[in-house]
Design a protein that fits this description.
Shape: globular
Strand order of the largest sheet: 4-3-7-5-6
Structural class: mainly alpha
Number of strands: 7
Distance between the termini: 30 Å
Helix content: 40-55%
Length: 689
């Protein structure tokens, strides 16, 4: 947990960022720290096998290698042929590409020193000269525009739209290049595996584009997103005058890189007043808005990779190092409730309910507090009865999974204590504490709340699915607690301060000053989550566009198989076609049906769970997803059971350049159809959180 040195209030003068935090909230924080210490002693955690060992320090190269693996670019390290890695590189924006090259450059330099190999520098590959880093605040905007770096990079391959079957992607963009190009770019092959791996990787890095991604879907590079959106692209008009608009259409790091330079940096003050937080709204485009749970697991994995790259590029634009330290390796428990990883709990819960996204035990804690504790004063400040808490912990670990625990005997106070203990004893904190120092530096630069939200938004999108879904449920629960602030005395800042040590924790030792600064920033981040949770879980449109292009590029790369594989596959297909059974199956495939039966501008929507299982829909510029749902509801309105079924039904686009996408009811389907003409359209229930 937290170090013992940090378990007492510090005797120092607070900085400006801490001066505005009221003494009451800080007393809550230190009281929570004392509670953590008491529970740690009570449970004897220092003797448990999950006690972390001091991690072996890693050099910069090893940390950057971990970063490359975390963003889905392990192929740059291994040199393996992997379509996903090449496709990812082909979709990067200018700032994202610069972030990847910076980390790869550090990795190769470290590898060169270790192995004493004459591995070529990334600057030799791209023909650039890097200037020494400038940490001054006045030059926080990155100097990407118009540099030699961009002029030397290859153009972004055009993967949007349909491509003839025989077409191939530009070899300099996504493949390893022609033999002549290989000889000119890569040094003579060394017998060592390191040199060979680096040679393959150098040519693969040619996939990084030189121009920013135009996330509005326009194929005209000069067309601005703002012009397109203001010419009738927005759906909602009733916007409060004091609210500020957020755009999900353009890469956040590109916004920062292209913003005017600041002449002066003012240190930001964290103010606890609710009015200090700007009201934001996000206009729906014709594609609608997408929640994190609306995409398939495979596409969300790509969103996580892109989000981490974008987050790194975002901080790079401010000249802030998103330093990653080696996290403590803590082995979670294999059974029970407390100290068990979220993924393990969900795996066990999904044996009972395959669609569950938040651990059952956590849902029960929410329910117990909501039953009678929402109006209880100081519900999350009090520590509860120590003896009862210990007893309930032991019984939950032993009986919960067998459905033998008696919840009626637990009161809301013990449930609140157990909820905090649940998060505190996870093997790793719910939110990545290693990013807090970068957030501290960002706050010291004095950016607008909008910039802070953008950084937080990317961090949330980069979370594992289990962490993100649990965080969303937790923030929704805390909103119910805060709604009763007049009686329970738990404001947004009170909740944030009390929960900060439980949701952002580090087992490394920190001084009192560092501990307070980390806790203060963590509390501010939780407050931002609570304030902006209505938009925080929505996936930025520019990331969805990149995922579509990744999928398109992957499909094209898979077509470019070696001639022998192509021949073998063609023979296999020929055999299947000649088979009577296979021929019947092929005749029934959706793709064949679409090509032969469905004309342009008409989609066939399938509803396998309804009486009317299929319907051809003629699209026009005003057809929305909810209009199609209404058609099916009308056709199936003859029975009350069908009306009940339609209440939770949503329209999905499946396949093509997306895995699965639950469409916003206000999405204009003709626009989606033009972006993904090869998709299937299915009506089915929306999974619950």
């Amino acid at each position: 947990m937290l170090s013992n040195e940090s378990l007492h209030p510090p005797g120092f003068s607070r900085s400006n960022s801490q001066a505005s935090v009221d003494s009451g909230s800080m007393e809550d924080f230190w009281r929570e720290i004392e509670n953590l210490k008491e529970h740690s002693i009570m449970e004897g955690q220092e003797e448990q096998p999950s006690t972390p060992t001091e991690p072996k320090p890693l050099d910069e190269g090893e940390l950057e290698a971990e970063w490359l693996q975390d963003v889905g670019l392990s192929t740059l390290i291994s040199g393996d042929e992997e379509e996903d890695g090449k496709a990812l590189l082909s979709t990067l924006t200018r700032t994202q590409a610069a972030a990847v090259k910076k980390r790869y450059n550090t990795y190769t330099q470290t590898l060169r020193k270790k192995n004493k190999q004459s591995v070529r520098d990334v600057r030799d590959i791209f023909g650039v000269s890097e200037s020494p880093p400038d940490n001054s605040c006045d030059n926080h905007a990155t100097q990407l525009d118009g540099t030699e770096e961009e002029k030397e990079l290859p153009d972004l391959p055009q993967t949007r739209g349909s491509t003839p079957d025989g077409a191939s992607l530009n070899s300099t963009a996504l493949l390893d290049g022609s033999p002549d190009e290989d000889r000119s770019l890569v040094e003579p092959r060394n017998d060592s595996s390191v040199s060979h791996c680096m040679s393959a990787t150098e040519s693969r890095l040619k996939a990084i584009p030189a121009i920013p991604l135009h996330s509005n879907g326009s194929e005209k590079p000069g067309q601005s997103v703002s012009n397109e959106l203001h010419n009738g692209g927005y759906l909602e008009k009733n916007i409060p005058a004091e609210a500020e608009e957020l755009s999900f259409e353009i890469s956040y790091s590109e916004m920062i890189a292209n913003a005017p330079k600041r002449n002066k940096c003012n240190k930001s003050e964290i103010k606890k007043e609710e009015c200090a937080l700007t009201k934001f709204f996000v206009q729906k485009t014709r594609f609608g808005l997408t929640e994190a749970g609306d995409l398939s697991a495979e596409d969300m994995k790509k969103i996580r990779h892109l989000s981490l790259i974008e987050l790194t590029a975002f901080f790079d634009a401010f000249r802030i190092q998103l330093k990653r330290s080696k996290t403590e390796k803590v082995k979670g428990r294999d059974n029970g409730i407390f100290g068990v990883p979220l993924t393990a709990l969900l795996e066990n819960d999904r044996k009972k309910d395959p669609g569950v996204k938040v651990p059952f035990v956590l849902q029960k804690f929410f329910e117990k507090v909501e039953e009678s504790g929402l109006e209880s004063e100081g519900i999350f400040r009090l520590s509860g009865c120590t003896a009862k808490v210990k007893q309930y912990r032991e019984e939950l670990d032993a009986k919960f999974n067998a459905d033998k625990f008696k919840w009626d005997k637990m009161c809301h106070r013990e449930a609140a204590v157990m909820l905090k203990a649940f998060f505190r004893e996870l093997p790793t904190s719910l939110f990545p504490v290693e990013y807090i120092p970068a957030f501290i530096t960002l706050l010291e630069r004095g950016p607008h709340i909008k910039v802070q939200f953008q950084a937080l938004h990317l961090m949330v999108m980069a979370l594992p699915d289990a962490n993100r879904d649990t965080a969303q449920a937790l923030m929704k629960f805390f909103s119910k607690v805060i709604a009763n602030e007049a009686k329970n005395r738990m404001s947004v800042w009170n909740i944030s301060t009390v929960m900060a040590p439980n949701l952002f924790f580090s087992r490394s030792k920190h001084s009192d000053c560092e501990e307070l600064q980390l806790a203060n920033t963590a509390a501010h981040i939780i407050r931002l989550m609570l304030k902006y949770q209505h938009i925080l879980w929505k996936v930025p449109s520019f990331l969805i566009t990149q995922v579509r292009r990744m999928n398109e590029a992957t499909m094209l790369l898979k077509k470019q198989l070696p001639s022998m594989k192509k021949l073998l596959r063609r023979k296999t297909i020929d055999r299947e076609v000649t088979s009577p059974k296979a021929s019947k199956v092929l005749q029934k495939t959706p793709s064949s049906r679409r090509m032969s039966d469905v004309p342009e501008g008409v989609i066939r929507v399938h509803a396998p769970l309804l009486s009317k299982v299929s319907m051809a829909i003629q699209l026009n510029s005003q057809t929305k997803a909810k209009d199609i749902l209404a058609k099916f509801q009308y056709e199936n309105s003859h029975s009350s059971s069908e009306c009940i079924k339609m209440q939770n039904q949503r329209l999905y686009e499946v396949g093509g350049n997306i895995g699965q996408h639950c469409l916003d009811p206000d999405a204009y389907i003709l626009d989606v159809y033009h972006v993904n003409p090869h998709a299937e359209w299915v009506i089915k229930p929306q999974p619950r959180l």
